[in-house]
Each structure stands twice: as structure tokens, then as C-alpha cells.
Write a structure and sequence with these properties.
It is a single chain. Helices cover 20% and strands 36% of the residues. Helix 5 runs parallel beside helix 7, helix 6 packs antiparallel against helix 7 and helix 7 packs antiparallel against helix 8. Strand 24 and strand 25 form a beta hairpin. By secondary structure, the protein is an alpha+beta fold. The relative contact order is 0.06. One of its GO terms (cellular component) is membrane.
């Protein structure tokens, strides 16, 4: 916050509950007094037009009534007020008032008073234009280089520029690719209009190009008339600023340099006449209005920028020179010259706080009053605290809309996975090339303690695993009743899964007195699948490309104790070496050290290490938990295989790029195929048959290309799914190794998984 506050020179509150915006404030010698003293013109959305001639007010005194020269209520809301040479035959200043559907130009004049009440002011309507379109804002200037008069350009809400040569309407032009209106201004140096479009880019249109472009009134005519009525409106230059603009201002304080200032939502730009950036300033606040004004230093421009923190900042080019505090948020700011005082800052807020101020350094001295020390009555404080706690408890009691939740759930869903594989495999349409694809039975039980309406069960396992049936719908359940379903899980696609987990979810409704239709509820549970579902025992392998070593703080455990389902005692000594043959063809070997407390996992594929490593650590933890050993821990001290992991990332990324390439090629060939079809159809419909000129051969060739591309895209998609599954397994493995290496907690591992494993499935849209 600034130490310096804006010193109030004169201020007033306009009306009651009136609204104002950026275009509602104007400062000029509107009554042509010739004294060089500006008047403050304010229009409101309630239709009130006020003109003030401020005089200095002593501190504590109110504004004098004679400061208000004129107050008149017009028939419509006032969007913008401007002062210029708007009437033909005279170079006097006139007031232009923009309404939603009307433009009015008034002459403001004063009559000398004969009594002490002072001079009388009135406005006289010189001419008005009824607008066919709803107006948004306007700008004025000597369009086309005319001398001694100003022309007016109004921008409508639907993107039409309507130009008026004083009392007559000149022409209208639509801006190309228009969506929403932006700020509009005129540069007399280049004779062009500058605006900011909805594409967040500054656009400049020459007045001469506008004049010779196609008339907006002829836009709805036939194609032939449109072609003959004029040229298409072309933009002179474009600059992308990447944000919406609040206001634009063109300044030219000397003959050499002209600048275009654009105030964005987060940046402040200064452009040259040709649209090149002269400089820009990133703002660390949200601006509300601005105005450039002449600087005392040659070659620089000063700018006042108001913001939503009630601050007014003074910049010299990009350097902050001063910051001052305002009593309100300004929506419009101007610089005016009053009685012997030049450079007064005039600000207007959206609720009608109009203030003229100057920059000063008088500090506001505030002394905190002394606090009366009194003894604390602890009994009274305790009684008040209990009363407040009672009020809080009453307020936080839940309404009886939902039934009161009891200690037990209304509906419980449990899943029980069979300890043995199915004697007869239930695998359906499996793509795995193994001789036998095993399946395991999952028994799901739903127990209801209350009346349950429309229960439905969904069972989810992540691909490449699949279930024999994943949707079940039941009749309404009575209290203390249950339903049981049995299904089988198997490996469907020819790659190893990254997770051996499943999820059951039951959607149901519970009726209440207030809602007989029932309140929707969800119950769910997870289940773990056995490792035997995707691999079977095999001979250990000594050689492997990838090896990991897991350290423990307990003596090594023999494999028959922790892997009884994979050890065949008739095969001889398998206490320290165990082989796992995956259904997809790869093999992983598990070795236990006879002397140290270490276990080694090795495989030819990095991703195959994940499930075996996870299963090993899980079974070791369960084994020592049964022995009431609480301080068991696994650690990893080797190097994390990042290079191999990055190769999987690159492979997956390459396949994603291929998928995009196939999609583009398919789109091109499909467009070509349809174009040839249209040509052939035209030939076949023709009453006088013409030769096909090999169009049928071209159609057949294009058809073959489309089919070949579709097959290639399908094959790439299958490869991409396998690469995604491998990458997911490798990511799980890397996260696990990091957690063992750094001894991370469960919450920290969850953060890592949420960061590196955001995708449940791989799609081009994500």
C-alpha cells in the first residue's frame, strides 16, 4: 500500500444507486468559454447528464451548488460522452451522447445571470441519428484527413462500424471474424481505426479500406450482387497480445513520435504505428482504467493506471514513478486543467464517486487510542463460552432429510477371491497365445440391512484383464436379505497387466418419508487377484538384462514359506531360486541370498519386474506380521533404472505420434475418397454419358489406401496399448524403488502415484 494518498481538491457523489462505466466521463471546455478551463461531463446508465465546473473546496466544506452547471435526464441510458467539432459550419465544440439505439449531438451554452444565482446553462439538440443496431462504443476524429471538423464512428454489438459525417450517415462496414466488441479508437497519424478482437489481438483498419469495402447493407444480397458491390474488408496489421483489452488510447504529443497504448488484463503495451511493440509492462495487479499524458522528459510518455486495489500508479514508460491511494475503485480517469491549476486528476467510480485530486505527500497521522485496562472475569467468560458452544451445536445439527447414519452401513458389498484357479478355465475370446489361459472365481455378496431399491452391481478390472460378466441388476432387496453372484477373471489381451486388482461398486436407492423415490447411495469394495492368474512356475534363469536387489533387516526366508503356491517340492531344491513364466512368454527369476539379507529379482523386460517385486515385498511383510515382528523393513540401495524407463516413455510417445499421423492420413484419404465419389456420381447422373477418365480406378486405389491405413492404425493402437501397460508397470516400479530408497510414508507414496500415474486409460483426448 502507498504511503501517499491522493489529496482531494474537489469531490461529489452523483445521484443515488446510479451506475457508471468507462465511457461515462469526459473532460473538455464544452461551452466554448475560451478561458481554457475544462468542464467535467458525466453521463450515467440511468440517463442523467451532468456538467460540472469544479472550484477548490476548503477541508470540511461541501461542494457549492453553482459547481453543477447542468443536470438533465435524457430518455435512455448514456453509454458514452465525447466532445468534438461535430456540427458543420462551425469549429465550436459540441457534446456527443451515445445511447443504445441513438446518437445525439448537443450544443452547450451559458447565459449571464442578472441575480446572485449565477449563470444559466442549457443544452440544445443539434441533430440525432437513430441507430439500426445496438451500440457498444464510439470514437471520433478527422477521418480521411478532413480539416476543421470531426467525424464519428460507432461500433455495434454485432461488429458493425457505422460512420457518420456529422449530420449525415456515411456508410457501415462489418469487421471480419467478429464475436464480441472490444475497445475502439482512431489514429489520425495513420488515418486508421484500432480495436482488439475476441481473438485477443490488436487489429488496425485503414479508413480508406473501410470506405471502399463491401457495404454492410448489401451483405444479405445475392452472391452476384455481393461480388460486384466492393472489395472485402482487409486488416492493415495484426498483433497478438494473448489477452483481452480494457482500453486503447493513441497519443502524439510531438510531431515525431506517435504511440498506441493498450491496457490488457495483466499487461500494459505501447505499440508503434505499424503494430510493432515499443515496450510492454507486466502488471502485478488487476487494472481498471488508464490514461497516457505528456511527460516532462522528452521521448517518454507518462501513464496513469488505476486498479481494483484503489490505487493509482504513475508510470514513465515502464518505470513506476509514483503510487497513490484513492478512496474508491476508478472505472475512468482523466487529466484536466482548472482555475490556475493544471494537471488535476479526475476519477469516477462505478457507483458515482467523482473526485478531482492532486498528488501530495501529507501523511495521515493516526494514533491508536489507549485501551482501558480492566480485570478479566473468568466466570463470566466461561459462562459466555458455554452459551456460544450451545448455539454452535444447535446450528450444526443435521436436518432430518436423510435417515440418521448408524454405526453399520445400510448395504455391505464383499468380494471373495477363490484360493485356487478354476479347474476348467472360463476365459472367453482371449488373445493370449499360451496353451491354457487360467481364470479365477470371484464371489461377490451384497447384504442389505434396510429396504433397498434398484440395486445394480458393476465389476471393474483394468485391461488387459477381463471378467466374464461385469454388470448385474437385481430386484429390490428386503431388510436383512442378501444376493450373491459368481464371476471369473482372466487375462484377455496378450500383455501383462500393471495391477492385479479389481473393484465392485453397487448403486442403490434408500427410500425415506420425504423422498419415496429414494436417495441414491454407493457402496464399493476392492479385491486382489492371485499372481497365478498371469504366470506359472518355471525353471529359474541365470542370465537376465535387468536386475534389482532388495535389502531387508531380517534373515532371509526360504521361498517354500512365502511362495507355497509356486514351489513344487518334487522339483528339488527351490528354497533360494524361483522362476515365474508369464503367460505372455517372458520369464522372471527370484533369488534369495544364503548369507546376506538380500533378494534379487531379474528379468529380460524391465516392466516384468514390477509385479514380482510387489508380490515379494507384500508376502514378506505378511510373513513377519504373522510372527509379530513390527520393525521389518525393505530398502533399496541400487541405482534406479531411469535410462530403461525413459526408453519406454520414448517408445510410448513415438506410438502416440504415429497415431496422430495415421489419423491425419486417414482424414486426407477419406476427403479424397468422397471427392472422387462425388465426381463419379455426377458422371453417372449425366444424361449424356461421358468417359470416366479412370475415376473408377482412382476410387478403387483410394479405397485400398483407406483400408491399409485403417489396418495400420488399428495395429498401432494395439501396440500403443501394450506400450502404455508396460510404461504403467515401469512407473509403478520406479515409484516403489524411490519409496524404498527414501523410506517414504504411505501418504508421500500416494502423492507420487497421483503425480506420475494420472491416467486410468490411454486416449488421444487426454
Amino acid at each position: 500500500m502507498s504511503l501517499f494518498k491522493a489529496r482531494e481538491w474537489w469531490s461529489t457523489i452523483l445521484g443515488e444507486k446510479e451506475e457508471f462505466d468507462q465511457g461515462c466521463l469526459c473532460v473538455a471546455d464544452v461551452d466554448n468559454s475560451g478561458s481554457g478551463q475544462d468542464k467535467v461531463i458525466v453521463g450515467s446508465y440511468m440517463g442523467y447528464l451532468r456538467i460540472f465546473n469544479p472550484h477548490p473546496v476548503k477541508h470540511g466544506e461541501e461542494v457549492q451548488p453553482e459547481d453543477l452547471l447542468l443536470e438533465v435526464q435524457l430518455c435512455e441510458p448514456i453509454l458514452q460522452v465525447e466532445v468534438g467539432k461535430f456540427v458543420s459550419g462551425t469549429e465550436g465544440l459540441h457534446l456527443a451522447v451515445l445511447h443504445c439505439r441513438k446518437l445525439c449531438v448537443y450544443a452547450v451554452s451559458g447565459t449571464l445571470g442578472n441575480v446572485e444565482h449565477g449563470n444559466q446553462y442549457q443544452i440544445k439538440l443539434m441533430y440525432e441519428h437513430n441507430l439500426q443496431r445496438t451500440a457498444c462504443n464510439m470514437t471520433y476524429g478527422p477521418f480521411g484527413g478532413v480539416k476543421g471538423r470531426d467525424l464519428i464512428c460507432i461500433q455495434s454489438m454485432d461488429g458493425m462500424l457505422m460512420l457518420f459525417e456529422q449530420e449525415s450517415y456515411a456508410f457501415g462496414r462489418f469487421l471480419p471474424d467478429f464475436l464480441l466488441p472490444g475497445p475502439l479508437t482512431y489514429s489520425s497519424r495513420t488515418d486508421s481505426f484500432i480495436t482488439v478482437s475476441s481473438c485477443q489481438q490488436v487489429e488496425s483498419y485503414k479508413y480508406q479500406v473501410l470506405a471502399f469495402a463491401t457495404d454492410a447493407d448489401e451483405r444479405q444480397e445475392t452472391e452476384k450482387q455481393k461480388l460486384s458491390s466492393g472489395k472485402r474488408l482487409a486488416v492493415d496489421w495484426v498483433l497478438n497480445i494473448g489477452e483481452q483489452a480494457l482500453d486503447i488510447c493513441v497519443v502524439s504529443f510531438n510531431q515525431g513520435v506517435s504511440s498506441i497504448f493498450v491496457l490488457g488484463e495483466r499487461n500494459f503495451f505501447c505499440l508503434k504505428d505499424n503494430g510493432q511493440i515499443r515496450f510492454m509492462k507486466k502488471l502485478d495487479y488487476s487494472p481498471s482504467c488508464f490514461i497516457p499524458y505528456c511527460s516532462v522528459q522528452e521521448g517518454t510518455v507518462n501513464t496513469l493506471i488505476g486498479n481494483h486495489n484503489k490505487m493509482l500508479n504513475v508510470y514513465q514508460d515502464v518505470t513506476l514513478k509514483w503510487a497513490t491511494q484513492l478512496p474508491h475503485i476508478p472505472v475512468s480517469v482523466k487529466v484536466a486543467n482548472f482555475q490556475d491549476l493544471k494537471g488535476v486528476i479526475v476519477t469516477l467510480s462505478d457507483d458515482g464517486h467523482l473526485q478531482c485530486s492532486y498528488l501530495g505527500t501529507d501523511p495521515s497521522l493516526f494514533q491508536a487510542p489507549k485501551v482501558d485496562s480492566r480485570e478479566i472475569n473468568y466466570e463470566e467468560m466461561n459462562a459466555e463460552l458455554k452459551e456460544l458452544q450451545k448455539i454452535i451445536r444447535e446450528a450444526t445439527k443435521t436436518q432430518d432429510v436423510l435417515p440418521e447414519s448408524e454405526k453399520q452401513r445400510d448395504l455391505i458389498v464383499t468380494a471373495e477371491v477363490s484360493s485356487d484357479l478354476d479347474a476348467e478355465s472360463q476365459a472367453i475370446d482371449s488373445e493370449v497365445k499360451a496353451e491354457v489361459v487360467p481364470s479365477v472365481t470371484v464371489k461377490i455378496t451384497i447384504q442389505s440391512r434396510v429396504t433397498v431399491q434398484k440395486p445394480s452391481l458393476t465389476v471393474c478390472v483394468q485391461a488387459p484383464l477381463a471378467v466374464t460378466c461385469d454388470q448385474f441388476i437385481f430386484e429390490d432387496l428386503e431388510p436383512d436379505s442378501s444376493e450373491t453372484v459368481v464371476l471369473s477373471v482372466f487375462l484377455k489381451e496378450n500383455c501383462s497387466p500393471s495391477e492385479l486388482e479389481g473393484n465392485c461398486m453397487v448403486l442403490y436407492n434408500i427410500p425415506t418419508e420425504l423422498n419415496p423415490e429414494g436417495i441414491p447411495r454407493v457402496a464399493q469394495c476392492n479385491f486382489n487377484l492371485p499372481l497365478r492368474l498371469i504366470c506359472f512356475p518355471a525353471q529359474p534363469s541365470k542370465a537376465a538384462n535387468h536386475k534389482l536387489t532388495i535389502d531387508t533387516n531380517k534373515p532371509p526366508v526360504t521361498f517354500p514359506a512365502i511362495f507355497p503356491d509356486f514351489v513344487d517340492l518334487s522339483e528339488g531344491d527351490q528354497a533360494n531360486a524361483l522362476g515365474f513364466q508369464f503367460l505372455t512368454g517372458s520369464k522372471t527369476t527370484l533369488l534369495a541370498s544364503k548369507t546376506s539379507q538380500r533378494y534379487r529379482i531379474q528379468s529380460d523386460q524391465l516392466e516384468d519386474l514390477w509385479l514380482i517385486t510387489k508380490e515379494l515385498t507384500h508376502r514378506l511383510e505378511e510373513h513377519f506380521k504373522k510372527q509379530s515382528c513390527k520393525d521389518f523393513a525393505c530398502t533399496f540401495s541400487g541405482t534406479i533404472p531411469l535410462q530403461e524407463y525413459f526408453e519406454l516413455v520414448d517408445r510410448h510417445f513415438e506410438l502416440r505420434l504415429n497415431a496422430e499421423k495415421f489419423q491425419e492420413l486417414l482424414s486426407e484419404r477419406a476427403v479424397q475418397f468422397r471427392a472422387i465419389e462425388r465426381r463419379l456420381l455426377t458422371r453417372f447422373k449425366d444424361k449424356t454419358p461421358a468417359p470416366l477418365q479412370h475415376l473408377d480406378t482412382l476410387l478403387e486405389g483410394t479405397f485400398r489406401e483407406v483400408i491399409a491405413l485403417a489396418d495400420a492404425a488399428e495395429e498401432n493402437q494395439a501396440n500403443m496399448f501394450q506400450a502404455f501397460t508396460k510404461l504403467k508397470s515401469a512407473t509403478h516400479l520406479v515409484i516403489m524403488l524411490i519409496s524404498l530408497w527414501q523410506k517414504l510414508s504411505t501418504d508421500q507414496v500416494a502423492i507420487l502415484e497421483a503425480t506420475f500415474l494420472p491416467l486410468a486409460e490411454d486416449t488421444q483426448e487426454l
